[in-house]
Amino acid sequence: MPIIVDDIIQMLCLISQERRMKAARKHSGKGALVTVAVAFVGGLVAGIQGVVAGWIIGDLLGTWMRHSQFKPVPQILMELPPAEKQKLFNQATAITGNLDWAGTMQLTALVLFNDALQQKLLDMLVTYITSELQAEIRYDD
Fold this sequence. Notes:
The chain has 141 residues and is mostly helical. The chain is built from six helices and three strands, in the order αβαβααααβ.
């Protein structure tokens, strides 16, 4: 993989890390399945009170499962296959256009000191993660 692709990916990692971005694949179906299954078992064991208790416990368990699947966006970007990194590179270079840089740090500095450019790149990254990877984004404060 050419070094220039790695420069762009590293820059995207750094700006997403600065924003404390995390992402998780959407598994709302699994959470709902867990809720229904636990409510069903609760109903078998304790009747209507078991259904209510099972529903609450299942909902909490499903939420916990989804919450624990969030990973830092930089980790997700580094784990992408080369073809996906190339796709991100193409989208990012369409935004950065005529910037001239020599290495990741210079590119990152150019982007960090240009709020409009940084926001466009972050918007592109969010769109990529939500549409291509079908993931949900969260920002840790």
